[in-house]
Amino acid sequence: xxxxxxITGAAGGIGAAVARRLAAEGVRxxxxxxxxxxxxxxxxxxxxxxxxxxxxxxxxxxAASIAGDELSLLxxxxxxxxxxxxxxxxxxxxxxxxxxVNQHAVVWGLRAALPVLRTRGGGSIVVTASLAxxxxxxxxxxxxxxxxxxxxxxxxxxxxxxxxxxxxxxVCPGLVDTPLTAGNRERFRAAGIAVLDADSVAAAIxxxxxxxxxxxxxxxxxxxxxxxxxxxPLP
Length: 235
Ligand SMILES: NC(=O)c1ccc[n+]([C@@H]2O[C@H](COP(=O)([O-])OP(=O)(O)OC[C@H]3O[C@@H](n4cnc5c(N)ncnc54)[C@H](O)[C@@H]3O)[C@@H](O)[C@H]2O)c1
Fold this sequence. Notes:
235 residues; alpha/beta; Rossmann fold; two-stranded parallel ribbon; 43% helix; binds nicotinamide-adenine-dinucleotide
């Protein structure tokens, strides 16, 4: 049986780098993104492109059905930033778009894939969270809220899924040089702020997919070793 992966947000950045790594291992890759450039990444790696908006649960259903019975790996990675700092002046369309992809699309992805993973007896899932999932991020509170939600979901679900041989883990990168942050590249450079490259985050995601562990939160930062985050016990 050929391993098959669904990778969301794969038109560029971290998702495309994960797809390249998995394809190089011989995994069949079903790539999902709303950007038409997705087709080029899919053609490059011999994968399949599913282009559309992940805030619609039907797109995750479509991707899972294209992946078929051999689906065993899932990387829920699509996401976007917000630029709203103050709820009083929130742009409602942007708010719905950010929560829709960062938070709801993770649930839609699980909803579509879990029945297949259960039928085949297991699988491995990684969600791309962020350092913003683990600490206060005043520069983007709505983004931070959605990433905290994703970590909450991983913490709540990973134990019971592990009993079904389904691993669910989160990878939490610091700043990464991708299309998401490209607008700030010069500012980061001028301020001496170190950023990760997309492929090192992809390597951490693939390693986590293969780790056999569940419920982990892997922190990935520039110039530091990758490290599992373990929340302090409640007082
Ligand atoms: N770049 C960073 O500094 C950084 C840091 C921590 C976490 N992350 C997370 O990593 C993940 C990947 O981001 P990236 O940095 O590679 O950026 P990216 O912009 O290259 O990738 C995100 C992809 O998600 C897609 N996407 C967004 N909304 C979508 C929607 N509604 N439907 C379909 N596709 C949609 C975009 O088109 C894009 O291709 C995101 O979840 C992001 O929050 C990024």
